[in-house]
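Here comes a specimen:
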Amino acid sequence: MDAKQANREPLIRIDQLSKQYKMGGETVHALSDISIRIDHGDFVAIIGPSGSGKSTLMNVIGCLDSPTTGSYWLDNEEVSRLKENKLAEIRNRKIGFIFQGFNLLSKLSAYENVELPLIYRGVAGRLRKEQAIEALSKVGLADRVHHKPSELSGGQQQRVAIARALAGNPPILLADEPTGALDTRTGVEVMGLMKQLNKQGHTIVLITHDLSISQQAGRVIRIQDGRISEEGGETRERRTSP
């Protein structure tokens, strides 16, 4: 890490964050006193079994939910107490979502699917086209821009979904089980692409229950019963090897 990067504020700063729900008259502690730092350019995997709190943590990081207590700073902006309309603006500008089920619109081409969030952001037509084509080129689909999802393989559909998340270059890519709907070989290809994008400077937070997937990240945050612990990932182990 160079001096310039060392002096930067973390992209994500979560301090003593907790999330509680009321269920059947009882209080459920989904997250308990969590603190996390994620720097620009990090590749972080959050892993945990069903019910561990990882989905709740993902929703908070993705500005889909707000904490009960604690603070969440995203790209130097305190977002934990914002109202839903403001959270929607933050999501639109600063987070590119990658979903397990792709979430592509079947009647739209690859280009049109990638262009859609840029329309919501109010990006002008010419710039919108440039950014959508650039994003599809980054994921190796420059020759598939006019294909509809039904004309693409599962791996190609996930690449379109990744391009959609990349469009407009949001500060963070949030990937929810991005290989979960893919066969093993295609999953390996998609993870290779994710690592390539990270090397290009994209910050990635990946949610998974798969240990082999999580270990390909630079950092692994394990969550259990709403609490976290960190482990070394593939990148960290390489850096510390002789």
